Amino acid sequence: MTNSPNRLSNRTMAFVLAGGRGSRLKELTDVRAKPAVYFGGKTRIIDFALSNALNSGIRKMAIATQYKAHSLIRHCQRGWSFFRAERNEYLDILPASQRVAENKWYLGTADAVTQNIDIVDSYDVDYVLILAGDHIYKMDYELMIRQHVETDADVTVGCLTVPRKEASAFGVMDIDDKDIITSFLEKPADPPGTPEDPDKTLASMGIYVFKWSFLRMLLLQDADNKDSTHDFGGDLIPEIVKNGKAVAHRFDSSCVKHATDAPSYWRDVGTVDAFWKANIDLTDFSPDLDLWDRNWPIWTYSESVPPAKFIHNEDARRGTAISSLVAGGCIISGTEVSNSLLHTGVHTNSYAQLDHAVLLPNVTVERSARLKKVVIDRGVVIPQGLVVGEDPDEDAKWFRVSEGGVTLITQPMLDKRAESIA
């Protein structure tokens, strides 16, 4: 986390795209954008991109918001307000605000930057790092920026190495032996292999590095193109691949790991199943994502709450948590908790059981409820005796059951159920 004058990150701003709903998370994004969804007990999804930037030495950031942005904006104001303008540090929140025309929202990822060109100009930076605000990973962006400068690229694209048979869900890169991108293919039926391994493919992470003067020119040209969708992946990157120099940066070379033999960790938690699994994976004995690493911390808004509390010690009424993460402010009163993740302020009551459950902040679980393989939205009150995760057909009558068998429960679902059985 050093910030020496020689670091390229000192001359870079991070522009975080955080305006999307994330509709595949279903009701979890009814009241908040995907980057604002809670993750890991204390953090929000956007904290990972912002923490990576901060830990990489970047002290100038902007966050473009659009869909139901209040929760995200409030979180950033509370948790990321420590930047000091007198030290040439900035974090700007840029809602779609009719800055260009009264009826013009952000039309695409590139247009979100185009509409704020004057603000980026004011940062007086040489490079711009474009980030998606909705993925879980640790990455040292300084290494990617350095590669961009050393290769004299027009754009450097962050890429994951994925099995070729799984790459059809991504935008993928065909590269030569010097990692120069020769074609960019959006969700191809037959993805190309890499020069060193025909069974692997490079998939775009939605992370791009540009020299600002070049990107500025490109954005203005794109804004005048009536046939463009004004999107980085759909328009700008393919144009550079065709007519300029686009270079792939492999995530494996800049992923921050807690051990040299640890796998490179990156997750798109954009579905209910993926969200549940990524949270539950944190309860493993040695999880691939290390939230305890003080050398690369994940910064967030930390509420002032008391420690977690476990009470009652009787047969069938014992407050316990095994292979679980329990955040501050939780009261586990006579409840058996196993392989579960409880966010801040969860209260559970006697004789309840939680198994492979993800509970977002301030959930209350009343007596004798049994919850298995569930995601419970913020502030939900689980009624006494409710059983979920044992009868999929019954669960599906009232709640959303995913393809992977995870049950998502929100308060409106419970209210509708209560009205029906009253």
TrEMBL record:
It comes from the Bacteria. CDD domains: ADP_Glucose_PP, LbH_G1P_AT_C. The keyword Nucleotide-binding applies. It comes from Litoreibacter ponti. PROSITE patterns: ADP_GLC_PYROPHOSPH_1, ADP_GLC_PYROPHOSPH_2, ADP_GLC_PYROPHOSPH_3. This is Glucose-1-phosphate adenylyltransferase. Alpha-D-glucose 1-phosphate binds at residues 106, 171, 186-187, 204. Homotetramer. The gene is glgC. Belongs to the bacterial/plant glucose-1-phosphate adenylyltransferase family. The record marks 66, 105 as: Could play a key role in the communication between the regulatory and the substrate sites. Its EC number is 2.7.7.27.
